[in-house]
Amino acid sequence: MKIPIQNLYYLLCYAWDKLEERDLVAVSATDQTSLLELLTQVLVKGSSRLFKQGMVHTYEPEQVTLPTIRGKLLFTESLQKNEFRYGRAVCEIDQYTPNHAVHQILKSTFRRLLKLKTSPFQSSVRHLYTRMQGIDEIRLTDRVFRQTALPRTQLPYRFLLNVCELIHKNLLVDEATGQYQFQDFWRDEKQMAGLFEAFVRNFYRYELPQWRVRRETIHWQLKANETDQTLLPLMQTDLTLERDDRKIIIDTKYYADTFQRRFETRKIHSPHLYQLFAYLKNQPTSATGILLYPTVTESVSATFTDQSHQIRVHTLNLNQHWRGIRQELVAFVH
């Protein structure tokens, strides 16, 4: 399925809970910019803005050998290095420095972008890279991104770190040539499934403030002793909307084909329907369930009802002007 660059950028801004960053770059609706160019431009402009405000410094622990004891004495290290014999000690002191994980990730990402055969905005990237003197480069891994925590004073960095992580996950090394190549993540169903879910949830949070929007843990309406209850699987919705006496449970799915095929006949994916039906059947009151897919080759809108519940299947066309996407999403819950 084809998604315009402008819409991909808006999806990312909603999914990352950084809607205010939509205007950071002027994304052309004509789709002339590649995804890598867009991400690089966002990284360059966002970093330049932060550097103009002044690079954030934090206190980072550093091991130093001193003639006097300062900070925390590292007794074992001092013994191993035989420093006491010469009237010195190994200490750990806090240094006020910009050399912390956030800037290390940014600099290391700039370095990887410079290794691209055709790096967009190469001069701007190189300029920012050279400005980060005294900041170490690190090996970027999934674990680095998971473990990097931001103090409240560094919240503006979160959006840039999300961009760095997306580049990291999709910047691959060609083993034959050693060159870096960027794969468009929108072709990866697993990545896009998580993005699509987060986008829809945060869209409703921002655009429909009159609704309570959340992920909900649903409890089985089955009678059993305490031991047997622990055997039941967890049920957690992608998205639940509540307002007054209305409740809508939305399950988002991102597939290359909206339907499964059986003898050339279209059928809803069975596990998707069973899962949503279980959510509804374990509600104490009536509710509406929606299976939401991106439009692949055709738009779909189907409704099924029983005595107390309604299930709807909708597709969202992501290959249209953003106003159309917004109108479709709002219409689904009205």
UniProtKB/TrEMBL annotation:
Q: Name one GO biological process term.
A: DNA restriction-modification system
* Source organism superkingdom: Bacteria
Which InterPro entries does its entry note?
McrC, McrC_bac
- Its recorded name reads 5-methylcytosine-specific restriction endonuclease system specificity protein McrC
Where does this protein come from, organism-wise?
Siphonobacter curvatus
